């Protein structure tokens, strides 16, 4: 009975952590969406709110890291249970970094709109990559909530598209700056935002990879596992 009670308490503790992680995920997803809106419309009050929200994200990271550490010490999970806790800790870190990038976008938006965008349509420049990263983050959090490794696998390829879009944006902005030095300041701000969006895509991909790790026990980081799986499916 003691073992059964301990197991039930572990499940309860882990579910509490999972719920808070998903809450944190929803917060950073909204923070990112609002940061992109600020970049588009220049609402300085909204930008300050995005930056302030990062404090809440940071507090959640500390709270959840502490909860995971206590769970390991008290329950001493092994095998699959330990894998789940370790992957959850890594997801928490990626979510916190997404919050940092969203705050960075908001700060850059403040500088850009106070100075004036100049001749660059900065909003249109990052529109496609921002949509792609937002979709990737949303779907990665959905895969995490449902522990859907098949959906997680599909998301990894989406990050490759975001990376290509970022490289295209970088080339275009370099061309603008070379052709018209007056665009340098606005181009650099826009490039910083595009880079922050690209990093958010990377962190969302990481979350998808941790879903696969939790479900299948395979650490596919820095491998071509996703590509090989797609090739196998096509055979």
List the main descriptive attributes of the protein structure presented here.
235 residues, mainly alpha, Methane Monooxygenase Hydroxylase, Chain G, domain 1, 89% helix, PhoU-like_sf
Main sheet attributes: strand count, strand direction, barrel closure: none
What CATH architecture label applies?
Answer: Up-down Bundle
Number of helices: 7
Distance between the termini: 50 Å
**Overall morphology:** elongated
What is the CATH first-level class name?
A: Mainly Alpha
Tally of discrete structural domains: 1
Number of DSSP strands?
0
Output the structural class: mainly alpha
Low-confidence stretches: 1-5
Instruction: Estimate the helix proportion, in percent.
Output: over 70%
Order of SSEs: HHHHHHH
User: What is the percentage of strand-forming residues?
Assistant: under 5%
According to CATH, the fold-level topology is: Methane Monooxygenase Hydroxylase, Chain G, domain 1
Domain PhoU: 22-108, 134-211
Family: Belongs to the PhoU family.
Subcellular location: Cytoplasm
Function: Plays a role in the regulation of phosphate uptake.
Describe the structure.
The longest helix has 40 residues, at 2-41. This protein has helices at residues 2-41, 44-75, 79-115, 122-146, 149-179, 184-216, 225-234. The protein is built from seven helices and no strands. It has one domain (2-234): Methane Monooxygenase Hydroxylase, Chain G, domain 1 (Up-down Bundle), CATH 1.20.58. By secondary structure, the protein is mostly helical. The radius of gyration is 20 Å and the shape is elongated.
């Amino acid at each position: 009975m003691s073992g059964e009670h301990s197991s039930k308490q572990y499940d309860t503790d882990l579910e509490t952590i999972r719920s808070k992680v998903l809450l944190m995920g929803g917060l950073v997803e909204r923070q990112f969406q609002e940061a992109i809106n600020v970049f588009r419309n220049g609402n300085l009050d909204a930008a300050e709110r995005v930056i302030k929200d990062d404090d809440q994200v940071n507090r959640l990271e500390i709270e959840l890291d502490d909860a995971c550490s206590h769970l390991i010490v008290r329950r001493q999970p092994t095998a699959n249970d330990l894998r789940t806790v370790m992957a959850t800790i890594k997801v928490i870190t990626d979510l916190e970094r997404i919050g940092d990038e969203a705050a960075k976008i908001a700060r850059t938006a403040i500088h850009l709109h106070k100075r004036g965008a100049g001749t660059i349509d900065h909003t249109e420049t990052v529109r496609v990559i921002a949509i792609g990263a937002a979709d990737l983050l949303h779907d990665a959090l959905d895969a995490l909530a449902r522990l859907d490794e098949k959906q997680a696998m599909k998301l990894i390829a989406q990050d490759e598209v975001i990376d290509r879009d970022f490289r295209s944006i970088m080339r275009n902005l370099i061309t603008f700056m070379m052709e018209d030095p007056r665009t340098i300041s606005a181009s650099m701000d826009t490039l910083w935002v595009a880079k922050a969006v690209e990093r958010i895509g990377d962190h969302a991909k990481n979350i998808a990879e941790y879903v696969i790790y939790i479900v299948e026990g395979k650490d596919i980081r820095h491998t071509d596992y996703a590509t090989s799986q797609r090739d196998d499916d096509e055979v």
